[in-house]
Amino acid sequence: MFSLSRALVVLIWLVVVCFNAMVMDAAEAGVVQVPASSITYRNECGFGDRPLQRSVDVIVTCPWLNFPKVPPIRILDRVWFAERFEGQVLSYADVSGAPIPPSTFPPVFDVLSPNAQFPKTLSLVTGLPGQNLSFGATSSSRTVLSGNGPQGPTPLGIAEGSIAVLFEADQEEFALEILGANPSQGSHTIFNFFRRDGLLLDTIDISDISDGFVAFRYDKLFRSIAGFTIHTDDNGGLGYDNLRYTWLVLQTPEPPSVSLVFLGVAVLVLRRRNRLASC
After folding, report:
1. Nearest residue to 74 (alpha-carbon basis) of 66, 86, 82, 62
2. Which of 26, 86, 92, 98 has its CA 20 to 30 Å from the CA of residue 107?
3. pLDDT, tens digit, for every residue of 139-148?
4. DSSP character for 261?
5. Which pTM was predicted?
6. Rounded CA gap, 54 and 229, in Å?
7. Cβ-proximal residues to 87 (8 Å cutoff; 6+ apart), any chain
């Protein structure tokens, strides 16, 4: 007879096998760049209605007005922006792209290491005062979000810094509009993609990035992109707008349903005790 203890051993073994498969799946490179027209999305976070601000030293949240959340429905629709993720090492580079110490003049660009704290929950870190984010205007008078570099809210610093984006709901795919790019100058724009626990999913280096949408898809079984970072050595820096992503609807059980679940568990426990007592 198949005992309960043996069934538990088999169940634990299956859980371990599945967990290891998920970890191995996530550890393999699986983020690919795709045409922006190929992705599906439910939300678009734009910055056109934000006032111009040369220095934003706090975490920026989008959307500014969340969808109505009517119990028992919860909508995971928020996105947060800052300089980097906890655990990432911030360094600097000059106009040639060569790494330099922060005391050397002029450090122009932020450079982020491709590691966040693992295994911990992915969390944002703001930059030093004046070196976090900014809302600026492009040549076409569009308001965009940018990262401020080591020169702070100055012409040498605005749009030269890194940004980190954290989704409230994990994403399978998303798109982001790039503005202010200066292609054909040998620049590199680095995208690092992270799982919710801080594990690096992949890194993509786009040479001579140009204006327009860039889109990415996690080409695996599970949607796992919890956040990403960008740093660039584009001469003049980059602005970002219109992040396209998908919010997630969670159906939370109503109180009567929760009570029924606990009642069912209690009945099963009592039945098990009666069987043991009768043995």
Report:
1. 66
2. 86
3. 888 999 999 9
4. H
5. 0.78
6. 21
7. 115, 116, 117, 118, 120, 198
